[in-house]
Fold each of these.
Amino acid sequence: MKHINRVVEWKDIVRAKVPVNGINNGIYYGQTANGKRDGFGIFYCTKYDDTPYLFECEWKQDFPINEARYICVRENRWQEYQGQINWSYLINGKGVWKTESLHEYIGDFRDGKSHGKGKYIYPNGKTYDGEWENDKKHGYGKMTLADGSVQEGIWKENNFLEERKSMVKPAAIPQKYHSFRCK
């Protein structure tokens, strides 16, 4: 097995010739190997629109891998995410996304969007539990309004098409994604 000599250091990250997913310059504190982010660390950066991001995750050869946590501030309101992330800093796999305005999504993501099975909780108490495609309710799902009334059936691009009751129980979301707090 090859030994990797890791050190912990502050490192300025200069934007690549082609920025990954709009990431601009930033600063990294954490483990490095051969001058690249490698191991655990935090990365503060901005995106092309000057939105600040703070990533906390494991890195391999300068790219995020596995589980991650990030927080960003858009229009003076924070958003946070915890779960799987891909090499281009996009949410991919299972995770939880929350906002300061009390929106929350627990479930599957693909390329930074809710995609697959998931539950969205709205600030007014309304919930949607079902299938998603590219950030839109799409497929079978159940909308429960704050007053307890239910719309259950087939959705297409956020529009309710037809009522239908399911005989299949929705996929379970792992317990570790049900609740998290920034430390």
Amino acid sequence: MTTLIGYARVSKADGSQLHDHQRDALIKAGVLQEHLHRNAASGRRDRMRLRQA
């Protein structure tokens, strides 16, 4: 069985942007909640959660 891993990212870490739409789309696509990784940070190089996924 294939495991789907999802990654949702917003570019502002101040809480003004939400992951809700991305999360909903990933779950609808079949990604389980425990395989969903989120990141909120500015800058192109800061993708810690993506590397962890």
Amino acid sequence: MVIVLHYINQAGSHADRIVALKGGQVVANGTPMEILTLPTLLGIFGFEMRVEMIDGYPTLLHFR
């Protein structure tokens, strides 16, 4: 099953894999633990954000 989500935390807590696109190109592909990291998110979005583990899932708390 494939689901397109723009809400990162929902993808992180429900998906087995995440494929991140930027400019129509795949820039990251992996598990939520692999993709929802500060270096990967910085590369995708271009600014730092805070990620913490909540209930066993990487969770984006806020943008800086």
Amino acid sequence: MAKKSVGTIQTGSKRLTKAVKMVRSAKSGSYTFVEKIMNPEDVNDFLKSK
């Protein structure tokens, strides 16, 4: 499964990270990308979750 932290975004006093994870679809078996912008501390939990 592909996992990657794409970039760091700074808006004012907040520091955010965009994480992209490749997830396999249960119905068709194809892969889709899930993108989420979050705090840098939460990235590892997001990438470890299924």
